[in-house]
């Protein structure tokens, strides 16, 4: 799941990647909204809200939203740099290492939130989650050649509409549309299910929820890392 890249990947591998990581992304996004009232995976909404609050004169809220966009981009940039350099140096399991690093970042966030409270904890959580979700989206985009994007819900909804329209085409176009529809539907539904589960878990576990999410990512990344080291 985290070893084969681009055209080497099968539909089954991409479905597994999308289902697992979109579930975690949805859970993290829901936790951020419950705690701070912002969507740390939804950059479309954050940019729109920034523009709205800036026009209405709510400068404090606008300045609160802008760093989320920057940290999402920074997370995507850092993941791309790490993965591309790893691939250039022929590091085995470069993508698996990235997911393990994401897990460690979430574990650090969990610890950081237990040591802080109030506004400091809130700012730490939202900025960190934006970075982590940008990081994850970059990893899945690179490994699948943009077929899988675990936080790109608006784009997936659009692609589902386009895919439904393509079902009326010829046989080859219809076959391709069905495969894409399946992938986007799995990603979208997994993100939603993760959101529900994340809201419940965060209400129950608080800051330790992020340690739970880190453990889930380690369960995905570490076996793939070991498999990569065994693969010629």
From TrEMBL:
Domain of life: Bacteria
Keyword Transcription regulation: no
Keywords, sorted A to Z: Membrane, Transmembrane, Transmembrane helix
Classification via Pfam families: DUF1275
Entry's transmembrane regions: 12-39, 59-82, 94-111, 123-143, 181-202, 208-226
Record flagged with keyword Membrane: yes
Name by which UniProt lists this protein: Transmembrane protein
Protein's organism: Pseudooceanicola atlanticus
